[in-house]
Design a protein that fits this description.
The chain is mainly beta. The chain has one helix and nine strands; from the N terminus they run αβββββββββ.
Length: 157
């Protein structure tokens, strides 16, 4: 079975394995809709605020960062994300850091500087596909597109 390293996938699989989410995406316990086994009846959330914010440069007038695909690779957090600029155009960026406390100061690398190129690019997902021994970056370009690499910490590859 392929090892998918995105945390969204791991979370969905974990919930499914625990029986908390059925194949339709609905949660239930003992067949009672709306009841989830072993979970409290209420939750309280807190937030640290944004961890990754737009950092425009001379050629990238970005105003937002969204759709992060987060993986852990060689003691670093790698994040591939969608950016939007002041013209409403979408593109991709990469950043990495050792600790989440370093995320706000981590440099951002714009993937239009790579073979991916400029134009509409959005919704990145990064995962390792063991049968091919490759990391895949899947993203939208109008039609689904992908790139592969042996080292996801080097976005220029």
């Amino acid at each position: 079975m392929p090892r998918f390293r995105t945390y969204a996938t791991q979370t969905a699989v974990a919930l499914w394995c625990l029986g908390l989410v059925g194949t339709s995406g609905s949660a239930s316990a003992a067949g009672v809709p709306g009841r989830v086994a072993g979970l409290p009846s209420s939750f309280q959330w807190s937030s640290s605020g944004p961890l990754i914010s737009p950092k425009p440069d001379a050629t990238h007038a970005i105003v937002s960062v969204k759709d992060p695909s987060v993986i852990r690779y060689k003691d670093r957090w790698l994040v591939y994300a969608t950016t939007a600029n002041t013209s409403g155009d979408w593109s991709l960026e990469y950043t990495s850091f050792k600790r989440w406390s370093q995320a706000p100061a981590a440099p951002q690398y714009f993937l239009d500087q790579t073979a991916i190129g400029p134009g509409y690019r959005a919704a990145p997902q990064v995962f390792y596909f063991a049968p091919k021994r490759k990391w895949f970056l899947v993203y939208q370009t109008g039609l689904p597109s992908y790139s592969t690499t042996n080292d996801p910490s080097k976005p220029q590859t």
